[in-house]
Amino acid sequence: VTPGFLVAQIVSLTITVVMVEAATRFKTVTDALGFYGVYHREPMNQLIHFFGVPGIIWSMFLFMAHLPIPFLGSYGITVPLAAPAHSINWATLATVFYVLFYLKIDPFGGLLYTPVLYTMYVTSVNMVRNDQVAAKKAQTADEKKKGD
């Protein structure tokens, strides 16, 4: 275990704690919209939020998909529709949390947003898997060159 891996685990745990703490403040969609409405009165802010927040969430999923959760990462999961078999990682936890959170505060909105969250999760897992496959191929090619 490298220091960088430990730091990444700590960062992922911190993000998860902050995410859960922030979300538990809202009991209903009205609570959430009231809070965000204060900061998003301007149309440009709303536009930035509409595109920026999903981009931030996807980036967070991509970072977290690299990191299996300690003590749970050895369990493999398979999810339907285009995600390869993979270990339970911090992105898995974050995706499940976000889906449950949005379904709780606004069931209809949560149903509409769940496919978006799922797509972000699946693309993150696929990108990590593709990176791992490419890294193994490069390592094998390097070892083969050294052997020649």
Automatic annotation (TrEMBL):
InterPro entries: Mpo1-like (IPR009305). Keywords: Membrane, Transmembrane, Transmembrane helix. The chain crosses the membrane at residues 6-26, 47-69, 81-103. It holds the Pfam family Mpo1-like. One of its GO terms (biological process) is sphingoid catabolic process. GO terms for cellular component: endoplasmic reticulum; membrane. It comes from the Eukaryota. PANTHER family: 2-HYDROXY-PALMITIC ACID DIOXYGENASE MPO1 (PTHR28026:SF9), DUF962 DOMAIN PROTEIN (AFU_ORTHOLOGUE AFUA_8G05310) (PTHR28026). This is Uncharacterized protein. It comes from Cyclophora tenuis.
